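User: Hello! My lab partner asked me to get a predicted holo structure for this protein. The small molecule is zinc ion, SMILES included with the sequence. Please write out the structure tokens.
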Amino acid sequence: MFDSLILNTILFISILLATFCFMEFMANFSHRNVMHGFMWFWHEDHHRKKPKVFEKNDIFFVIFASPCMTLLISNLWFPSVMTAAIGFGIMFYGIAYFLVHDLIIHQRISNRFLRKNSYVQALIQAHKDHHASINKEGCKNFGMLYVPSKYFQ
Ligand SMILES: [Zn+2]
Ligand SMILES: [Zn+2]
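Assistant: Hello! Below are the structure tokens for the protein in complex with zinc ion.
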């Protein structure tokens, strides 16, 4: 009993962390190929208009949250370490993405104190470069939490 609790905890944490990292690839991939692809009409206002309280781009949060909600809610009836860990991994990534992208970078709330941190500065610069183009094509840095090393110089 005790052993399986430890094993399950290790399994849970490993799957959760792996899911979190995998989500950075998923975010990068879908930002590049979907949001700057056939779904550009929902992402466009994020590149063209100044951030408002809500923008069309926010619909993506609902879309990306749904597999996570499905996994976590299904756990109420079918408990499983695997689906719970994946669900929480996606959820934590979603929270991190929202904090970093919407609150810190696009300053939906004021956060001057955070901007002294070098990772935060690199993160902001990398995403500003993403916004350098108001068009679907010619954008770089589609990921979010992983910042290319050149931004740290
Ligand atoms: Zn974009
Ligand atoms: Zn942005």
